[in-house]
Amino acid sequence: NDGSVHTQTTVIPANHMFVFDPLNATPPVASDSCGAAATSPCLGAATVESTTGPIVGVVVEHPHTGSPAPFVLSTRGFTAADEDTTIFAPTIKNAFNGGTTGWSVQNVGAVDTTVYVTFTVTNIASGVTGVNIGDQFFANEVVGAGQATVFSAFRNNLGGMPAGVYAAGVASASQPLVGSVNESKDQAGTPGGKVKAVYGCFPKSKATNKVALPVVKEMFNSQTTGVTVVNAGDQPTQFIATYTDANGNVRTFQTVRTDIQPGEAVPFFQVFQNPGGRFTGLPDFSVLFNTKNSVLITTNNGEEIVALAQESDRTATPSLDIKNYEGFNLQ
């Protein structure tokens, strides 16, 4: 992020892989005296280009401490199909129940661009005042071609979004963007007292009006899944969910609200309790308790959506790591 360029070139035989390591670049990427994230010589964005054939890749991150390392994060590398001038990040957190995120947005276009972000509040921690669900916060930064910036509470560039809030993020620019979100959460009983998660952001061009989530748990063996669904369309909408459990029981319900705004999200978390009465359509939502479900979510008027599933263990000692996966958009 200090504007320096580092390169590495190699020949990869067909059906083989190669690990690009920042320390092996020319010149090597710095690993100390890192400074602030916005201008750090230790942090940045990368582009991998093949001269002869198609490639795929993943990004793997882990600390250089411990044996084994206390955690490892991985997400897919982005191709042209993942870029768009508008991308969605379903969960952006500022000290929300111990979790804080960093949203890395990369300009993959040919010229500098201003990235405009909107954070729409999805949920608020207990005791937080002065903010409401649906409130919006705005920020922007100029990002050079091929470079990335990070939107995080640690950089104080969430547009004033207070601590104790989690929101849905939308980033837009005149150049194509890709993005990923890292989360760190305080959790006792884990190495270093923290757990980590990462996910890839969603381009608007890939949003559809139906999302599949193969594994959604409702306090199943003490594990539960929170699904954050974002209206990625252009008009207000209502979310309709179908949960099918491992015994074949099918349960369909919907949000009470029919006016979920573009860029706004609804959390499907511990639905068996129907928190805040945000859902309707089942006589008794407690029938979902201790179930493992495959889930389909759609809208009442064809508006596009994207979704992220995040699972955590509520009672284990030591606690299990949080984990998440991106929902699958269906045609």
Account of the protein in words:
- With 331 residues, this protein is mostly beta strands.
- The chain contains no helices and 20 strands.
- It has strands at 58-61, 73-76, 84-94, 99-107, 113-124, 136-143, 148-152, 165-186, 194-200, 202-203, 210-218, 223-231, 239-245, 250-255, 265-269, 279-280, 291-299, 305-313, 323-326, 328-330.
- Strands 3, 4, 5, 6, 7, 8, 9 and 10 form an eight-stranded antiparallel sheet that branches.
List keywords for this structure.
globular; six-stranded antiparallel sheet; 331 residues; mainly beta
In short:
By secondary structure, the chain is mainly β.
Helix fraction? Answer: under 10%
Percentage beta strand? 35-45%
Largest sheet: 8 strands, antiparallel
Give me the count of strands: 20
Q: Give the low-confidence spans.
A: none
Number of helices: 0
Backbone CA Rg: 20 Å
Instruction: Write down the overall mean pLDDT.
Output: 92
Q: Determine the structural class based on helices, strands and strand pairing.
A: mainly beta
**Amino-to-carboxy terminus distance:** 38 Å
Shape: globular
Order of helices and strands: EEEEEEEEEEEEEEEEEEEE
Tell me the layout of helices and strands:
Layout (H helix, E strand, L loop, with lengths): L57 E4 L11 E4 L7 E11 L4 E9 L5 E12 L11 E8 L4 E5 L12 E22 L7 E7 L1 E2 L6 E9 L4 E9 L7 E7 L4 E6 L9 E5 L9 E2 L10 E9 L5 E9 L9 E4 L1 E3 L1
Antiparallel strand pairs: 1-2, 3-8, 3-10, 4-7, 4-8, 5-6, 5-8, 8-9, 11-17, 11-20, 12-15, 12-18, 13-14, 13-17, 14-16, 18-19
